[in-house]
Write a structure and sequence with these properties.
It contains five helices and five strands. The chain is an alpha+beta fold. It has two domains: 2-75, Ubiquitin-like (UB roll), CATH 3.10.20.30; 85-154, DNA polymerase, domain 1 (Orthogonal Bundle). The longest helix is centred in the C-terminal third of the chain and has 19 residues, at 138-156. It is globular and about 45 Å long. The chain binds FE2/S2 (inorganic) cluster (FES) (2 copies). The site of one FE2/S2 (inorganic) cluster has 11 residues, from loops.
């Protein structure tokens, strides 16, 4: 076991864990953050996605000791009680069915729009390709990403 320091959603934490423990387990079991989900556990489905350094990262295959930067989970997306435009769009478009994959969908969409505020349909498909949904909500996801881009644009002027 080792003491490991983590910054998650603006808060500092110290955990006493085996350094090879996947970040996902530490987030869920030690820090009680249940936004990231265990899907495949193999880096294949995206359910466990978190954001590190502006990238969508699969926390199920990332040893906690390898994390050097702040982690943002689904719980950290809203600011001061205001939902992120992606979250607002997801509600507006009623995207989820069972909801299991949606942590990965929302965080992947957030990263996509932060990098490309005005994506084409093709760019959305490519950007979201690694986030799998067994309920096949892909058309709704595509529509919601477009709505989120519009909401983001009206909130910040970015992409206008
Ligand atoms: S649970 Fe991590 S990619 Fe599937
Ligand atoms: S909403 Fe059920 S797996 Fe995506």
């Amino acid at each position: 076991m080792s003491k490991i320091s983590l910054k998650v959603n603006g808060a500092s934490h110290s955990v006493d864990v085996d350094p090879t423990t996947p970040l996902l387990y530490v987030l869920r079991n030690d820090l009680d953050l249940h936004g990231p989900r265990f899907g495949c556990g193999l880096g294949q489905c995206g359910a466990c996605t978190v954001i590190i350094n502006g990238a969508a990262v699969r926390s199920c295959v990332l040893p906690v000791s390898a994390v050097r930067s702040e982690i943002t989970t689904l719980e950290g997306l809203s600011k001061g009680g205001t939902l992120d435009p992606v979250q607002q769009a997801w509600i507006q478009e009623q995207v989820p069915q069972c909801g299991f994959c949606q942590n990965g969908q929302i965080l992947t969409a957030k990263v996509l729009l932060d990098k490309n505020p005005n994506p084409t349909d093709e760019q959305i498909r490519k950007g979201m390709a690694g986030a799998l949904c067994r309920c096949m909500t892909y058309y709704k996801i595509q529509a919601a990403v477009k709505v989120a881009a519009q909401l983001k644009k009206s909130a910040t002027g970015v992409g206008a």
